Amino acid sequence: MRPTTHRLVACGRARRRLTPAAAFLAACGVALLAACGAGAAQDSSGAADEQSAAGASAGAPAAAAPAPPAADPADVASIDAIIAAVYDVISGPAGEPRDWDRMRSLFVPGARLIPVRVPESGPARAMQLSVEDYIERAGPQLEEGGFFEREVANRTERYGHIAHVFSTYESRRTAEDPEPFARGINSFQLLYDGGRWWIVTIYWDAERPGQPIPDRYLTQG
Questions:
Q1: How many whole angstroms separate alpha carbon 131 and alpha carbon 66?
Q2: Which of 63, 97, 176, 217 has the most beta carbons within 10 angstroms of its beta carbon?
Q3: Residues 136-160: pLDDT tens digits?
Q4: What is the model's pTM?
Q5: Cα distance between residue 77 and residue 67, in whole Å
Q6: What percent helix, strand, coil does the chain show, rounded to 5?
């Protein structure tokens, strides 16, 4: 199906015209759902996916997730470093392969990436993806179309071995784009095992009409 274009308006500000797939990516946030664009056009299929996943989790225990590749110590030495590594590994120009083993090395086995999906009608949903789901679905579109995401501010809370970071992001198609096509907040949950940091979940929601990012999340906390 050949896509048509339409205008995306985010919180009162007109943005440049996007294909439906790009508009869905903006609605989902982070690049983290580039490849689910086709599924967004058929929300019922997304609901079926979620029901299937829920059914699987309620049945027999899933096989243990494989151990991740060894991480670059610099990527996992601090909270700021591991979050910067996520943004770096998913970003790049069109045609540039991403280092998916680097991505895998940042997450605990069984980690989840969870975008909020908001259908035209009905309640919002949390769509759960494994790291491999994300790589399989989003990877080809990130590499073919180009995608750059950067953090503009964050707020961090830590206790013992756990940490939570609200990381406000901006998404662009090229590094030179003057305006982002999407903004939102990535909620990172992290574990410190005594020697390195791990990402447990990334849970995110995008800015949209009627849901602007509060000013307190646009400045460094």
A1: 11
A2: 217
A3: 999 999 999 999 999 999 999 999 9
A4: 0.76
A5: 19
A6: 35, 35, 35
